[in-house]
Amino acid sequence: MNFTKLEIDNMDERxxxxxxxxxxxxxxxxxxxxxxxxxxxxxxxxxxxxxxxANPPLLGxxxxxxxxxxxxxxxxxxxxxxxxxxxxxxxxxxxHQTSARYPKAQSEFxxxxxxxxxxxxxTAPFVKEAKIKLAMEYKQHQTIELNNTVMLIGExxxxxxxxxxxxxxxxxxxxxxxxxxxxxxxxYALPKQLKRFPYAKx
Amino acid sequence: MNFTKLEIDNMDERxxxxxxxxxxxxxxxxxxxxxxxxxxxxxxxxxxxxxxxANPPLLGxxxxxxxxxxxxxxxxxxxxxxxxxxxxxxxxxxxHQTSARYPKAQSEFxxxxxxxxxxxxxTAPFVKEAKIKLAMEYKQHQTIELNNTVMLIGExxxxxxxxxxxxxxxxxxxxxxxxxxxxxxxxYALPKQLKRFPYAKx
Lengths: 202, 202
Known about the structure:
The structure is a homodimer. Chain A is of the alpha+beta class. Chain A contains five helices and 13 strands. Chain A is about 20% helix and about 40% strand. In chain A, the strands form three sheets. Chain A has a seven-stranded antiparallel β-sheet with strand order 4-3-7-10-11-6-5. Chain A has a three-stranded antiparallel β-sheet with strand order 2-12-13. The radius of gyration of chain A is 18 Å and the shape is globular. The two termini of chain A are about 35 Å apart.
């Protein structure tokens, strides 16, 4: 079946949000850990983290324009650091629950039962239950004028991962970490590795 | 185990590329279909498409700085249109083969055996074997100065999908389309739907 641009424009808003958010394909699934300058922590599920480059190691992340209050973005701009923690099979339910609108004074760690972890003097909290964790440093952000979303770029300052995920050549086998991916606004899926292909030649 | 920023900086370049490309989590898996102004077609596997917003329906895509020649980017800038075609289980091998460096005169469609399809007067070629296809219109692009990658933003002008993928509320069940996702530079994975969660409340 087909949807034209006119049909997309005229859709019920929630139908369109679910359609467009899922039709672009599978998305990464992270918990972003932050703290404000008083040390009050925040944890938020995101599906908008994307690879931007390996050298320097950069990741992008998109923030919606009108999802006020945006504690995560405010904390990153205040402290310049954040953690990215892979959502795995065992913590999917708690991870999704972080999307509820808790007041700023209430940490999503305490609300969901996920455990704060601090590593190597890095001031943003990690999620202890995650098997792949990235310490991120803010580099820049900009507003995309087409729709007023904010794109934030951060650099990987440290990687913490279960050693059994790491293959000899540097490739991380995410299935060994039980990492999940996200579809649409509320769907979670567990991938099974199919194959790694050799470098393609004509 | 841990990698510090210093260790990442000093890594063998290929090890680092594989590590950083995979440690950010699962990525979407598309074939980008384009043609130049003479109608010569090009097809390229990409893992860098990301959701930017539902209204207007916008997707971003990242191009590496030095992967010359970049026929896909050149074609999009020349014609302002492109197609995004979900890679599914049946065409994974052919999809990966499009990453080989074919000369511009040789279309990856012919080289890999994937079939060109034209729908609704849209001038960019679709992949007939794909079950979810998006007609995209170029909106803008910019160079990210931190690493000279190019971020291109396009708008969804039409959606073509198998009707059995579409749920009543607009959510697209990608498992019904056998859509795959990508890890790292060369890994493909097939997700199994776990669950859709209700809107979370505190």
